[in-house]
Amino acid sequence: MIILTFFSEKGGVGKSSFTILFASWLQKNFGVKVGVADFNERIAAYRREEISRREKLRKDNPDIPPFDQENAWPIVTVRPGDIMALKKAGNQKPNASWLQKQIRPGGPLADRDIVLCDFPGSLSGMEFLDVAGLKMLNLIVIPTEMDAMTEKSTRKLHKILGDNYKHCVFLNKANMNLAQLKTKSREYVKLMTEAGYPMLPDIISATDRMGTIDKVDNIRSTFAYPSFENDKDGHPKDLGLGNLFIDVMRLLTQTQDLPGTRKTDLSFVAGLTKTPDDRQSPDSAFPEFTD
Fold first, then answer.
1. For residues 219 and 183, what is the distance between their CA atoms, to the nearest angstrom?
2. What 3-state class would DSSP assign to 33?
3. Per residue in 222-244, pLDDT tens?
4. Is the dihedral of CA 219, 224, 226, 228 positive or negative?
5. Which of 26, 71, 74, 34 is nearest to 268 (CA)?
6. What is the per-residue burial (b if ≥16 Cβ within 10 Å, else e) of 52-91?
7. For the sheet containing 75-77, what is the strand order?
8. Which one of 11, 163, 178, 256 has the minimum C-beta count within 10 Å?
9. Got the DSSP string for 238-275?
């Protein structure tokens, strides 16, 4: 089993959104058995909203199928009192122990190939640090933005992780509509790369299309896009997510399954090719992943 997280100490940069979309991309396109360990209760709330809104839509359109829980990727949420009980029992890393219980044989996520952890955007609660501290994360993917507060948060996290934890950074919510703004985005990636950040070349476009559903499928959990396809002119409709997710998977192939867990077959990753996309930055800490 491989475990990863989209994490930043700064809230609102897309941690939960990328968790949902990456899980959907893996299951929909490649049949990967994905699960989510929800330390933040955010993903579970989105799933409840999706089920509720789907049922409301069905009242006006009975042709819309009901939510297919059996084929949806599972979400396991930390319940109130779980962590407190582990602390009272003297456990020094209760969040990591909770996760171990979910993924070990007999646990609700034991049959998953890839598990994504969604953590609160804070280091003080110890959810992230507990799990990372026991080397349970194969990869930490950090969304960042072009503003001082987010950059400061990214810098702090990068310093904490250092060379001890495999991690990468990518630029999210970039305005790519005008040539000068696209140039500024690429310059930002270049500056971050030169400063030692492990930057992916993928630049994700800004969007206001998140958070609403009308026609949804059972793995999307509240997010109406992306289609993971190209439009009639051959341009990506996924805001750059497809290329980003391919780069993340290529990094995951360089890691090993967590000891004592299910073996994950990532052979399909070798056949993935990225869509030509002018949002890619030629300046990156991972130039070998730029097609």
1. 35
2. coil
3. 444 444 455 555 454 556 788 89
4. positive
5. 26
6. ebbeeeeeeeeebeebeeeebbbbbbbeeeebeebeeeee
7. 75-77, 34-38, 114-118, 2-6, 139-144, 167-174, 199-205
8. 163
9. STTHHHHHHHHHHHHTTS-PPTTSPPP--GGGGG--PP
